[in-house]
Input
Amino acid sequence: MIIKKKDSLADATKELQGLLKLPLDNRQQSLVERELKALQYGMHGEQDSAYFLDFAYGNSKNFAIIHDLRIEWQGRVAQIDHIVINRLLDIYLLETKNFFGDLRINEQGECSVVYGKKVYGIESPIEQNKRHIDVLRDRVDARGLAPTRLGIPLPISYLPYVLVSPKSNIYRPNIKKFDTSMVVKADQFQSENQRRIEQLSAVSVLASAGKMIGTETLENFAKGIAALHRPGKINYRAKFSIPENLTVAQPRPVPASIAATAAPPESVGGKCDKCGTNVEAKVVAYCRFNRVKLGGHKVLCRDCQKAV
Output
């Protein structure tokens, strides 16, 4: 079941596009363009991941899906791309990364993205997701959202995963040096989740079954988590040091004398100024710049034009 869909980014996109119409300096122009490009590309990546998750679990009563959850708690903020919750109270926190290039993770857990022959270091999405878990866990505990049995809160498992674009390659270290099993391609998460469940020991299965909740409880629990959402709005002018009073340059007004002579021929109709014959717009001749040539008349029929 889908509890919450992703918030619309239409307003943010429109605002950035509006900023590009301002007389920005080269640095500001570059930063705004980069921000807009990253916003649009990240949006596509999250949409792809959302599609795979909705396809796999959207119609199931055993899973609840929350897209785009932003939590604020004690000065900390967690922007979680996707959450999947099952009836065993496993909460999967899914961080989406839609890279142009390939993801490389070394034995120290350091991450970088490879674009052709160039390598760029990036913040570790693995560590980022762990911080998200800390905020979500503390917020759930503070609200007392965990389902209970005989008045005792049931234990919740928080499982971090990083979803990478199916088009990207993932270069990993030896699993004994650094475990990257939580980094999977977006279209393989369902298979990875099923494989994890199959690898659980008999004791773990029995323990999990003992805390299984009903579909109605699952839905209420997921709605309680979705209610923690606090939408955020970025002040792009402040972010890129764009003054509030900077506006789009207005075009200079056209003098009345020029505006009167700038009308297209089709805009003039009525009678010929020389002979008084009624003329249609399509045969009107309007000299914009040299009235002497047409005998000083603005509108002439074809016959009078030939006589001039």
About this structure: Residues 2-239 form one domain. The radius of gyration is 32 Å.
